[in-house]
Amino acid sequence: MLKGVQNLDQEAKVRLIAIGASTGGIQAIEKILFALPKEFPCIVIVQHILHGFTDLLAEQLQQKSRLIVQVAHGGESVERNKVFIADHGAQLRVKLEQGRIMLERGETEKCSGHSPSINVFFSSCTVLGKEAIGVILTGMGEDGADGLLAMRQAGAYTIGQEEKSCIVYGMPKAAYLKGAVACQLPLDKIANELIFRTKERGLYGK
Hints:
By secondary structure, the chain is α/β, with parallel strands linked by helices. The chain contains six helices and nine strands.
């Protein structure tokens, strides 16, 4: 299994940061977004949340972020300085269309017990290879572990939240044990790692 910290690839441009979270994830995501600059690659978030609360979550996160936060309903183009949150009740994927990264709303059936599923979304991000970064945050269960492993095997840099800063060390632990995590970090270090892996090292994509 893959273990250890993955080396930087100076040729790859980061175009998408994929984040998956569940229990305790809203507070974790707030902390990360608050620390990011207003110029940044696109972030797409799959947060396990109750039906009817996605719009409210987007509004809440907008208050904590310099980036533009909105709900992904499908059909959106991935663009810098934007944060998309997967809407409840359908699977969300990325796809490439003539070099553009698009968000696609799919079937309503659950996968790994969830709709949207982090596994489904992370797995779709493999088409981006090294142009994506995967982040798995606090949460119960194992959703996201297999998808994050697929991302890492495709060349993406992957980050897992370490145990002490998690509300529930379930999903990050499952991902780490599968060898899906290149780097485990406390929550308050994740934003700086994302900045380092993008702007500060010349990996900032268009």
